[in-house]
Specification:
Largest sheet: 6 strands, antiparallel
Structural class: mainly beta
Order of helices and strands: HEEEEEEEEEEHEE
Distance between the termini: 44 Å
Number of helices: 2
Number of strands: 12
Strand content: 15-25%
CATH architecture of the largest domain: Roll
CATH class of the largest domain: Mainly Beta
Length: 231
Amino acid sequence: MGKRIIQQARGKGSHTYRVRKKAFAVKPKYPTKIEGKYTLIKLISSAGHTSPIGKFQLETGEVFFNIAANNIFIGQEFVVGGQKQGDICKIGDLKNGTTIFNLENNINDGGKFVRSGGNSALIVGKKGDKIIVTMPSKQQKVFNANCRATVGVSAGQGRLDKPILKAGKQFYIKKAKSKLWPRTSAVKMNAIDHPFGSGRGKRPKSKIIPRMASPGQKVGLLRPRRTGKRK
């Protein structure tokens, strides 16, 4: 009986391939109901996030976590519905040309887009209750005007400017999110470890896997639109 290949072993969530729970202990998310003023009481460095996480307190005493905006400081006050850096606001109330981050995909989902360090999106147009936003990828996406976002740019910009000098540092960065690193080429593995393994038949392009195949089989070409030399 053969052993599980890497994809199957990772999918099982064994001790080797398991996300560090501590890295995601803090989950930044907008409260369902939020109004009035709120204050930054703590900045948290989270291994599972590329930007610092802010711990905020509402006037009612309720505490929530959000992606920190650039250049904010502990003790600073913010306003729900405001237009300044770090304020949480519905994107329909913001002007064209406003930079935003931690943008909701659906109303009250807590924020799904533009959450990585130093990132921001740009409001470029309005059509009724639909808002057109230019994402960091330069593609435009349409959102409901009642979706919330944080005004400004997320903190943590420049984290990739300094090179990762040691392989050990990269290893622990990847391990926090259970990313497989370093990645071994499939054809260099043994036949028992991967469908492309062993020295014989090094033609991975000939292996075409259905798109709806099980995770352990999803290697190589996942149902390409066409194969062969284009004529």
